[in-house]
Design a protein that fits this description.
The protein has 307 residues and is mainly alpha-helical. The protein is built from nine helices and four strands; from the N terminus they run αααβββααααβαα. It has three domains: 159 residues, no CATH class; 96 residues, no CATH class; 32 residues.
Length: 307
């Protein structure tokens, strides 16, 4: 039991380090924080699994850096391919896409990432794992089991929430797809009736129905929940295998709103700095005019009602 708790703590620790590397790697070019990973919390389980596989399989090699690099790159690349394949089959979504990379396979793996994984494996085996073992050896077994139990509950809860979020988002895409199909069908009906000049009353009803459908479509595109937006942000190249057009509509709306917030940042905190230069002079004139008016009123009051 103690051995299992030690391994699970190692899994959690390496998952956190993987999340940290991924988040920094993606946040720096984007110039904003990106919470990477399938889970909502600061963990990437695939890194934890990969680290344990590398440690378990490459431990007999010792500290042969070249072998660790080559074998580690092979193991982690194979894991990334299998993970991408399973996620696509389970959720009908391509979570990452390396198709634009020069050397890649099915968009799931690429040479650039494989080389980076190889380097990370060397750092893991030579530096991180020995330090992690020393740290865990100083924690009593009973405390390790308690921490492992708490983390296990967290991982299960976060996994359930993440899966629910994905399924809910896929349902939203299906609903949006149905709405767009119905809108196009109603528009086609209107075009046909106008062409033959029949059913003017029905045309009005159909137009009203179209307007309601369009309004509902806009609400679906705008009202994307926080966890769904986080997933879209965490995987910039994510692409559903079904309902791609509907997904792109929602993504464009999220990006539009994010850009709007960025441009209007501080609007309510310090509104004077968001006013255009030509408008500021006008605002200053108004303030001066009001100040002069108030001064005249006070002066008149003093004249008529001397103290």
């Amino acid at each position: 039991m103690e051995n299992f708790c030690t391994w699970f703590l190692g899994f959690a620790g390496y998952s956190f380090l993987g999340w940290l590397c991924e988040s920094i790697y993606c946040s720096v070019p984007a110039k904003r924080f990106i919470n990477r990973g399938f889970l909502n919390g600061p963990f990437c389980p695939v890194y934890g699994i990969g680290a344990l596989l590398v440690i378990g399989l490459l431990h007999p090699i010792g500290k042969n850096i070249i072998l660790i690099f080559l074998c580690g790159a092979l193991i982690t690349t194979l894991l990334e391919y299998i993970t991408g394949f399973l996620l696509e089959k389970l959720f009908h979504t391509k979570w990452w896409d390396y198709s634009k990379k020069k050397i890649q396979l099915h968009g799931r793996i690429c040479l650039q990432n494989s080389l980076l994984f190889g380097l990370l494996c060397v750092v893991l085996m030579v530096v991180i794992h020995p330090l992690g073992q020393d740290l865990l050896s100083q924690i009593p077994d009973s405390v390790q089991c308690v921490i492992a139990g708490i983390l296990m509950i967290y991982f299960v809860a976060d996994t359930v929430i993440s899966i629910h979020t994905i399924l809910q988002f896929n349902g939203k895409l299906r609903q949006l797809h149905s709405l767009l199909d119905e809108i196009e069908e109603k528009r086609q009906t209107v075009r046909e009736r106008l062409q033959y000049k029949v059913g003017q009353k029905l045309d009005t009803d159909t137009r009203e129905r179209i307007e309601k459908l369009i309004q509902k479509k806009k609400e679906l595109e705008k009202n994307t929940k926080l966890l769904q937006r986080r997933l879209i942000s965490a995987f910039p190249t994510m692409r559903p295998l079904r309902h791609t057009e509907q997904f792109l509509r929602i993504k464009r709306e999220i990006e539009r709103r994010r850009e709007y917030r960025r441009k209007n940042k501080g609007l309510f905190l310090n509104p004077i700095h968001t006013i255009r230069l030509q408008d500021r002079s006008f605002l200053i004139k108004i303030i001066r005019f009001k100040s002069q008016t108030i001064s005249k009123v006070i002066s008149s009051s003093v004249l008529f009602f001397p103290v």
